[in-house]
């Protein structure tokens, strides 16, 4: 852990002295297996120390592991949830509707594309060219053959793409995981055509469900380098230069068995519940809940100042 350098606020660059304690560190290295870094899995409730910025309201790990260590962890992460990825994509496509009415449908990029299921939905909605970037080979291996050509393995890097070449860039449940969300938002702005949209989905640590669960919330997780509220995700997009920023709660629809897996029960209770759901068939029913996520959209201005530099 010697590579863990103190950082400034990842949203507004205020110093760590402008932040208050939010959560003490709780790390048990012996239990950190590769499943810890899969994007949807049983919650583990381990976390690095987190502080809350008084200027912009984001909660962040003030001494994060290196970008390289994070990239390696994601490279090794297993992918265990094709059905959940499909359910999530259905919800994302619904939330994308307002942005899709505003943008051209020539080209779209998804950062953290998983199996590329969202890309398929975008093609069905008329996008001529779709690209996804995904660090986990296991997720890509779970993608159907028809999507493989759209998916690039690796982490998002601006120089891999043409400036001003996308109408839409999506980044869902990924901005918590990266070290520099502001740099990513700024890079995406430069990759968007003027008028193009950047759409994100993030956890909302201030939502009722996450406040209720406290340390037992699935958002309290070793893999989260920052946690947003509605105001801090809006601040991120505003600071990066987006206009017409809009933020609202996001409703997920998943199978009951998936929600049960996320509940903060002990594993014997959870296994009993899962067996009951499985034998009764109830576990396959889909249900919608607001689990405390936020969808945010911002647009690249038509007259941008200095963003092409
Ligand atoms: Zn801040």
Describe the structure.
The protein is of the alpha/beta class and about 300 residues long. The protein has one domain (about 15-255, about 290-300): Vaccinia Virus protein VP39 (Rossmann fold), CATH 3.40.50. Helix content is about 30%, strand content about 25%. The chain is built from ten helices and eleven strands. It has helices at about 65-75, 80-100, 115-125, 135-140, 145-150, 180-190, 210-215, 230-240, 255-260, 265-280; strands spanning about 20-25, 50-55, 60, 105-110, 130-135, 150-155, 165-170, 190-205, 225, 245-255, 285-300. A seven-stranded mixed β-sheet has the order 6-5-4-7-8-11-10. Strands 1-2-3-9 form a four-stranded antiparallel β-sheet, with no helix packed on it. Helix 2 (about 80-100) packs parallel to helix 3 (about 115-125), helix 6 crosses helix 8 and helix 9 packs antiparallel against helix 10 (about 265-280). Zinc ion binds near residues 11, 53 and 58.
